Write a sequence for this structure.
């Protein structure tokens, strides 16, 4: 008898646990269909287009300065940020603080990314941002085409549709994005007046960044840009990027305004907030 009662109690307790557990945890469908509006960034919009040069579809995340509607004749600097899918929201906050503290002027921010809900960002950026082919990375080596896309399609679209100042373009990128930033710098430095390269993969393509810089220096000794170059002290790129910093400092390029920084205690992804903050302050500093 006692054994049967214990069994009954065990069944009752198990049922109570199941019921209470079900009440405590809402089904995913119910959470997603709560009816509350999603959070969005103010003063932003998305433009999409398909490049005839790379054949890929891109989204441009565009952030306007707060005075954009009030001062209808004013033109603004434009920050072109690679990997917009990851860094656009971060830059919205970084820029907001820097502008409030009067370290940087009001500007338009353009985050460049890829269209589609299931876009394979890692694969696509490895195609567009790398300067030479790596046989282990499918489709790599498309930086030349993406540079043309940037120059002939993205920048003209922004400067045609928005009040952008063509004399104040800035290019920013991290990792492969930083690799492309350096590639763009030594391919056509006058396209932007400022470059922010964080943790660039200077060793990619058998040290291609070193070779490209050496070829550039052999052809001309002026580099009329502002460049902010950073790396984290705890990442695997720390030593080669510092070697690249040493090379640039030793060149004494005419017109180059250079700042380099090793961010102590940070690894590859963790450098971005400080690198972008310090980079923007340097590019627009006196």
């Amino acid at each position: 008898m006692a054994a049967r009662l214990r069994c009954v109690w065990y069944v009752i307790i198990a049922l109570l646990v199941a019921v209470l557990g079900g009440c405590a945890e809402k089904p995913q469908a119910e959470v997603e269909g709560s009816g509350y509006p999603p959070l969005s960034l103010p003063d932003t919009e998305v433009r999409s287009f398909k490049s005839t040069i790379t054949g890929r579809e891109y989204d441009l995340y565009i952030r306007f300065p707060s005075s954009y509607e009030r001062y209808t004749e004013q033109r603004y600097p434009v920050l072109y940020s690679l990997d917009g899918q990851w860094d656009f929201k971060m830059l919205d906050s970084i820029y907001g603080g820097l502008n409030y503290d009067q370290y940087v002027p009001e500007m338009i921010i353009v985050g460049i990314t890829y269209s589609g809900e299931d876009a394979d960002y890692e694969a696509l950026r490895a195609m567009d941002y790398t300067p030479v082919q790596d046989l282990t990375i499918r489709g790599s080596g498309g930086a030349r085409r993406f540079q043309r896309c940037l120059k002939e399609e993205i920048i003209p679209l922004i400067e045609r549709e928005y009040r952008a100042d063509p004399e104040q373009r800035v290019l920013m990128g991290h990792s492969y994005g930083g690799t492309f930033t350096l590639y763009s710098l030594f391919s056509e430095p006058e396209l932007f007046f400022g470059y922010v390269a964080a943790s660039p993969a200077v060793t990619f393509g058998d040290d291609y960044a070193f070779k490209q810089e050496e070829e550039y220096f052999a052809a001309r000794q002026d580099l009329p840009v502002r460049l902010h170059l950073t790396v984290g002290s705890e990442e695997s790129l720390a030593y080669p990027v510092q070697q690249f910093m040493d090379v640039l400092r030793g060149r004494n390029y005419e017109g180059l305004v250079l700042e380099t920084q090793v961010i102590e205690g940070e690894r590859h992804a963790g450098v971005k907030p400080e690198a972008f903050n310090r980079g923007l302050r340097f590019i627009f500093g006196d």
